[in-house]
Design a protein that fits this description.
Elements (H helix, E strand, L loop, with lengths): L2 H33 L11 E8 L6 E7 L5 E6 L12
Antiparallel strand pairs: 1-2, 2-3
The structure holds zinc ion.
């Protein structure tokens, strides 16, 4: 294989991994703020949990938050182990 092509592929790979890690960090920081009730977009204390889907016992849950001031909406997958018996708590 062409060493230049190989180097190029390596750079692309490292670049995409870096972007992905950065994206995950950003998302984690966003979720940390949202859990305290703050909107990452307008910074108001106006975030509400609008939807919660559990992927079964021990599976990842999909939480959807939305802001009732600026209309920000985002979904987060969490790996918290929700209790299996109480899925009507949202
Ligand atoms: Zn907002």
């Amino acid at each position: 294989m062409d060493p230049y092509l190989l180097a190029f592929l390596l750079i692309v790979l490292i670049g995409s991994v870096t972007v992905y890690i950065y994206y995950l960090r950003e998302k984690k920081a966003e979720l940390a703020g949202i859990r305290q009730g703050f909107c990452p977009k307008c910074h108001q204390n106006s975030i509400e949990l609008t939807d919660k889907r559990n992927g079964g016992c021990g599976g990842p849950a999909l939480l959807t938050f939305s802001c009732n001031v600026c209309g920000y909406t985002n979904s987060f997958a969490t790996h918290e182990s929700g209790s299996c018996g109480s899925d009507n708590s949202a």
